[in-house]
TrEMBL record:
Cofactor(s) the protein needs: Mn(2+); Mg(2+)
Subcellular location: Mitochondrion matrix, Mitochondrion nucleoid; Nucleus
GO cellular component term of the entry, any: nucleus
Pfam families: DEXQc_Suv3 (PF22527), Helicase_C (PF00271), SUV3_C (PF12513), Suv3_C_1 (PF18147)
Source organism of this protein record: Salix purpurea (Purple osier willow)
Residues in Helicase C-terminal domain copies: 216-390
Protein name (database record): RNA helicase
Record-linked InterPro entries: DEXQc_SUV3, Helicase_ATP-bd, Helicase_C-like, P-loop_NTPase, RNA-DNA_Helicase, SUV3_C, Suv3_C_1, Suv3_DEXQc
Length: 573
């Protein structure tokens, strides 16, 4: 069912680990020469400038990233009051920070997930505080809004606000996305900056903020409702009850468990996992939260682990191991706490949360993890701005972006509080776009786009978009996305493909916000995305992997207006 025509060479795999997802280029490329002076401060550079650009560039050490706080002159002009709201899950950290945001004349909320940004925009607008929603793929502007809810990659470090909130700040230690949290922490210009998260991040944040001169206040929170680790394992799915959430870490397991539970005949399961379209995840969560819906049990991955308020009575770990891309490993203390913390949310139908495992063997790890503090964070992620990469590239004009980045990343100088972001995915994209006749800026844009290069359809979509952009300067969706009949998936692989197609359409929308003239079919892409979401939901509501007694015929609305072309059908086979 792959609806994308694939006319490109196979994407090479490179031996660097990790992924990079950022959304925004720092404004700069037209003003590079003018900004060398500002960067001198940022890079600990010699101030003996000569007149020509290249001579000047030669004197700078663009590899010196030891003073990242100096990359953000707008924030450095302010004496920010920083409030660190730290404590366990479900302790009201985000709630208190949002109260401050709501009562401020202007502000921004930066969250780690689109779902959280949506939730905050909805909440503020409901409270009659007009609030824009800005994520990589959405711009919903509200008349008169002085507030914004954004995904952290979209945080604007050139505007000033009265109040800003960065949620789940402990993510600054994440190998792949951490640098966006560091950027928000150092770069947001606000009178008050509220940071919410795990106490494990406090010493590092205090250390990082020392050179900024900001005032830092730490406020500790206690859990608002009890979380009780059970002494007994679940044992069998016969013991599943309404309000239970079973946690596992692969799509295949999620559907297997959904099937097993539903075959018991007493419960229907909503599912939430990372590669479901965000809209679908929200609707699945809403259905589970709604006491009048038949879907009273949730089967989910760790995608539920951050900030979401779900009506969960008991978390059941079906496993305490997870494949992390390289190996199967035990869940970390922070992961266990974060996931377990979803049970018994304050204000939900279940005033006391319970947590257990499917298998008795896993109970000791569960209990010890819940008792231990999360390990203190040592370092925050960092990644060079486009400015630095661009100027560094001027010193090596014959090298492509891949080589420039590789060299940059290997040789960058960092202080002990930072690590350089893991960017395997970004380098894979650099290898693809380097052969195309496009500017460094455009290449950089493609490498920071939200493509999943481990997903074949998604990586092929990106390649096709980049090639068409390079050849024609305009990318019409219909040339790439073959009009066809998308169907309700009937198999695991069909579902996976539909999820991948959704990702490619999402990528088109992302590019359309940055290269508006060259990607003119945003509306079409958005409507196709919506259709993918509906078909996936239809599958989730009516089918499972396992044989079920009450099978219904395929619904007639599978004809979404798309006819798969011969080529595409061949492609699929
Ligand atoms: N003072 C309060 N009055 C009413 N509701 C509250 C209050 N504090 C928190 N809540 C509610 O309790 C729930 C948990 O709060 P919140 O999401 O702020 O916790 P958190 O500490 O940020 O959790 P997490 O670490 O999981 O993100 C939310 O539904 C929130 O609206
Ligand atoms: Mg929170």
């Amino acid at each position: 069912m792959a609806a994308f025509l694939l006319r490109h060479r196979k994407v090479s795999t490179l031996g660097v680990s990790g992924i990079l997802k950022a959304d925004k280029l720092e404004p700069c490329r037209l003003h590079v020469a003018l900004r060398l002076g500002a960067l001198a401060g940022a890079c600990n550079l010699s101030r003996e400038y000569s007149t020509s650009y290249d001579n000047r560039a030669n004197k700078f050490d663009f590899l010196d990233l030891t003073c990242p706080h100096a990359w953000y002159p707008v924030a450095r002009r302010k004496n920010r009051k920083i409030f660190l709201h730290v404590g366990p899950t479900n302790s009201g950290k985000t709630y208190q920070a949002l109260k401050q945001l709501e009562s401020s004349p202007s502000g921004v909320y930066c969250g780690p997930l689109r779902l959280l940004a949506w939730e905050v925009a909805k909440r503020l607008n409901k409270a009659k505080v007009p609030c824009d929603l800005i994520t990589g793929q959405e711009r919903e502007e509200v008349d008169g809004a002085k507030h914004k809810a954004v995904t952290v990659e979209m945080a604007d470090v050139t505007s000033s606000y009265s109040c800003a909130v960065v949620d789940e700040i402990q993510m600054l230690g994440c190998t792949t996305r951490g640098f966006s949290f560091t950027r928000a922490l150092l770069g947001i210009s606000a009178d008050e900056l509220h940071l919410c998260g795990d106490p494990a991040a406090v010493p590092l944040i205090q250390e990082i903020l020392k050179p900024t001169g900001d005032d830092v206040h730490v406020q500790y929170y206690e859990r608002l409702s009890p979380l009780v680790p059970s002494q007994r394992s679940l044992g069998s799915f016969k013991n599943i009850q309404t309000g239970d959430c079973v946690v596992t870490f692969s799509r295949r397991e999620i559907y297997k468990l959904k099937g097993q539970i539903e075959r018991g005949g007493k419960h229907l399961c909503s599912v939430v996992y990372g590669s479901l379209p965000p809209e679908t995840r929200t609707r699945q969560a809403t259905m589970f939260n709604d006491a009048s819906s038949e879907f009273d049990v949730l089967v989910a991955s760790d995608a539920i682990g951050m900030g979401l308020n779900l009506n969960i009575s008991r978390i059941i770990f079906s496993t305490m191991k997870k494949f992390d891309g390289v190996e199967m490993r035990d869940l970390t203390i922070s992961e266990v706490k974060q996931i377990a913390g979803r049970a018994g949310r304050y204000g939900s139908d279940f005033p006391v949360g319970e947590v257990t495992c499917l298998h008795a063997d896993d109970l000791p790890l569960l209990h010890s993890s819940l008792k231990s503090p999360s390990p203190i964070l040592e370092c925050a992620g960092l990644f060079p701005t486009f400015d630095l990469i661009f100027m560094y590239s001027r010193l090596h004009p014959k090298k492509g972006l891949y080589r420039i980045m590789e060299h940059f990343l290997e040789n960058a100088k960092l202080s002990e509080n930072y690590f350089i972001a893991d960017c395997e995915e970004m380098l894979k994209v650099a290898a693809v776009v380097d052969v195309l006749p496009i500017s460094l800026h455009d290449k950089y844009l493609f490498i920071i786009s939200p493509v999943d290069m481990r997903n074949e359809i998604s990586s092929q979509g990106l390649t096709q978009f980049a090639q068409n952009y390079a050849q024609k300067g305009i990318v019409r969706l219909k040339e790439i996305f073959t009009p066809g009949t998308l169907q309700v998936p009937k198999t695991e692989s069909a579902l996976k493909e539909l999820e991948s197609i959704h990702k490619v359409l999402d990528l088109y929308v992302w590019l359309s916000f940055r290269l508006e003239d060259s990607f003119p079919d945003r509306e079409l892409a958005a409507s196709q995305k919506a259709i993918c979401g509906l078909l996936i939901e239809e599958f989730l509501e009516r089918f499972g992997w396992q044989k079920q007694p009450k099978r219904r015929k395929l619904p007639s609305r599978v004809n979404s207006g798309f006819l798969l072309s011969k080529e595409t059908r061949q492609c699929v086979k």
